[in-house]
Amino acid sequence: MLQLTNPLWLWAIAGIIVPVLIHLWHIKTGRTLKIGSIALLGESARQSSRSFRVTDWPLLLLRCLLLLLLAFLLTEPYWQKLLKPAPAKGWILVEKTPVKEVYQHFKPKIDSLLKRGYELHLLDTSFKAVKLAEILKDTVLQQKQVGYWPLLKSLEQKIPQKTKVYLFTSKQLQHFKSKKPLLNLNLLWQTFTPADSVSTWIQNAYFTATDSIRAIVGNSKPGGTSFSTVNLQSANRNARFNVTIEGGRAFISIKNNTQQAVVVDTSTLKISIYQHNFAADANYLSAALQAVKKFSDRKMKIVYTACYTLVRSLYRNTWKQLSNFILP
After folding, report:
1. CA separation (Å) from 219 to 155, 201, 225, 259?
2. CA 252, CA 244: separation in Å to the nearest integer?
3. Whole-angstrom Cα distance, residue 138 to residue 99?
């Protein structure tokens, strides 16, 4: 396809009107006649003969062609071939939200695939084709969270069959909540553990025997999950936790954390020990419960009873509550 670098020079074609006007405004020169005597001729004024007819067509056409050629050369024409884009060898799928971290972990592999002709696409409902430089510069990292399994099932309907797909994602559990479907994809999936995959939450909270608040705090990292206890004195403020009173109940939450506030348990755990014909066992159990009480600093009241029916009805509920105050 012919392209022009400076198409404005096409206006120079209008210059062909100049030679046309010159040829139309043609002044004829007089002819010399040889006569024998001028005695009988009187004086007469010189007259010029003008005509609006083109008398030299080859010269006019030559001049017009030269002007057209000059205007055409000034536009700097060039021939551009239309090349059909080669089909992509495959797809590269990445999430938009942690794309910088994904690229940091798999940079050699992604760069190699791009050089081999693979297309980069976003792992979302649109599967939009993008340029790597554009998404790395994008500062808007918000992306609607959709599970991996529904997205991959939707991908089956949008990608040509047998197309090779390289998928790079994190391996956070929150993305695998839905049921795994049957997939017919030529998929190679590589995952990594995000550096900031740390979660902190309040597992439980209660008032101790000394009227302070004890919170059991969970902390999850890529290396594992751990629990710790924190004691908060009601008279002192804590820089890490918020304690509020609403509707006569105490609530505790971690500052700058999205977890909903946890209700602080103010009740006293009552435990009945059935000791009929099992006095020795009852004493061992009482000692164990006293150790739990001392360790957890939980408000507990331990009593002995000979009523088997009452103990049986409270058995499951008592141990379920008790397990909440022992660190996992």
Report:
1. 35, 7, 6, 13
2. 7
3. 10
- Residues 142-177 have pLDDT tens digits of 556 678 999 999 998 888 888 999 999 988 777 888
- Cα separation, 225 vs 217, in Å, equals 11
Q: Is 296 exposed, middle or buried (0-12, 13-18, 19+ CB in 10 A)?
A: buried
Domain boundaries, the chain: 2-29+49-79, 90-192, 199-263, 269-323
From CA 215, how far away is CA 205, in angstroms rounded? 4
**Mean pLDDT value across residues 248-276:** 86
pTM of the complete model? 0.43
What single DSSP character describes residue 176?
Answer: G
| Sequence-distant (≥ 6) Cβ neighbours of residue 53 within 8 angstroms | 24, 26
pLDDT of residue 166: 95
Q: How far are the Cα atoms of 95, 111, 127 from residue 130, in angstroms, in the given order?
A: 12, 14, 9
Residues of the chain with pLDDT > 90, as a percent, come to 12
Listed in sequence order, the residues at least 6 apart from 59 whose beta carbon sits closer than 8 Å to its beta carbon are 23
- Radius of gyration (C-alpha) of the chain in whole angstroms: 47
